[in-house]
């Protein structure tokens, strides 16, 4: 478990930690010279029941509020330190606000410097009154004189009761906001932080964001002790070979591979603090703090927030930072008299939202409805890769797989697939079905096809697809009958053959007539040239007679064909073109010469 201090500068936080743990968290020379805490400090505290907890000591100075917010991320509980002779001060309130927006809900009020107060009972009442309405309103209050070791046992008992039973977050992937980086001989670069969820073991493959650098865990340390495995809610040092301290950015996060999104836009539930003087619809020039990550932020809420209200918002940052669904953050702005600079904060609902999203979708995410269903439904025909959802929404990792689609998005795709198969069946009635490969399935058509197959709205026979009502034999019989009728109609027209449009009009139109024409052409029962159809019986005879005439005369005028067949230019030109293509004749100006096949045709006949 992780417990942190909070409170105004010089109210005795570091002195209290030293009395409880024996560790002086002011390790910097500047801290000793100035007599105030500047950097985060860490210690191990053994409770009266034998359990050990990690303690994070935070600075209380107004100019170091961002450092306090860094240390407060992931706390299970807080020791709010208030000097009895001064009472609740601006930084006291600011730290309470920071803990509140970071999700801390348990704590102990520690009334220090009671030896400097004439009436500790009155002081305790004033503190209670000042904290009414906060998450610490009903918290236990313990009076402590740390230098004299008075009240420490009572404080330990209150903390032990507060932290029982221990809460764990081991089911989620590991996530550790880095707050310190330093080299250590024999261990490589060491990063420290509060493991706020998941677990780590030596030799685990991890990712350092931003940047997505893949690394291996060489060693793990908990308060100086080397261990093989750590679980959520403890302070841990991680030895990382293959990376230099200078390569690790401030505000980095260590996580299981693939579980960090880095960006500058996210959707959130925002808590506008009760002490703010007016309602808000949008805000700019705010300081964003999440672990050690900092950026300038602006947000726009979906509905006006009155002081103390919560609502959903789109938050935009000025730089890329690590983002993970479920993480909590602090927003700092202009200091409000008596309350410090924490103006808002909240939790990330979606770490990688679409550019456009409705307020209704954000509201459903904030309510904790079926998060995956909400996002998949919103994605429509684009779908969502399952492996992206864990980091986006703060869920346990999902195995990689095909895109996920909502049923209402798949249904229109299914209608398109079914229509394509039906159209093919109508156009090619003699075939046994449509090749599945011919559908050119996209991401959403694949599950749509499977849904049709599962519902037996389509049947698969090897590589072919067909509808259940498609009778191949019946279709083939009807197609053969139509083909025969089309052939007789074309043959009856002789060398004044009909156009395709005339054939279709004569037989009721439709794709089945077009299919019949293609069948007749592929079987060489008709000739189709420049959109005019001729029966092969007529064109074969014409080919032989033309060959004989052009060989005998040496050249034929264009008008010869019109006179021979008693036809007009409408049919003569297509027939001359066909004779040229068949090698019977060769065009020479406005005349025709013998083609390469002319003599052989004469000899054959």
How would you summarize the topology of this molecule?
Layout: E1 2-6, H1 13-21, H2 29-34, E2 41-46, E3 52-57, H3 65-72, E4 77-83, H4 90-101, E5 107-112, H5 120-130, E6 141-143, H6 152-162, E7 175-184, E8 188-195, E9 199-201, E10 205-209, E11 213-216, E12 219-222, E13 225-227, E14 229-231, E15 234-240, E16 253-256, E17 261-272, E18 280-290, E19 293-305, E20 310-323, E21 328-336, E22 340-350, H7 359-366, H8 371-379, H9 386-393, H10 407-427, E23 434-435, H11 445-454, E24 459-461, E25 464-466, H12 472-492, H13 500-506, H14 511-522, E26 526-529, E27 532-535, H15 536-553, E28 556-557, H16 559-565, H17 569-581, E29 585-588, E30 591-594, H18 598-604
Parallel strand pairs: 1-3, 1-4, 4-5, 5-6
Antiparallel strand pairs: 2-3, 7-8, 7-16, 8-15, 9-14, 10-11, 10-16, 12-13, 12-15, 17-20, 17-22, 18-19, 18-21, 19-20, 21-22, 23-25, 24-25, 26-27, 28-30, 29-30
Helix pairs in contact: 3-4, 10-11, 12-14, 15-18
**Helix amount:** 25-40%
Quick one: CATH superfamily of the largest domain?
P-loop containing nucleotide triphosphate hydrolases
CATH architecture level-2 label of the largest domain: 3-Layer(aba) Sandwich
CATH domain class of the largest domain: Alpha Beta
Strand content: 25-35%
Low-pLDDT segments: none
**Tally of structural domains:** 5
Radius of gyration: 41 Å
How does the major sheet shape up?
A: 8 strands, antiparallel
Question: What integer is the average pLDDT?
Answer: 91
Strand order of the largest sheet: 11-10-16-7-8-15-12-13
Shape: rod-shaped
Number of strands: 30
Distance between the termini: 104 Å
Q: What structural class do the secondary elements suggest?
A: alpha+beta
User: Which fold name is given in CATH as the topology of the largest domain?
Assistant: Rossmann fold
The total count of helices amounts to 18
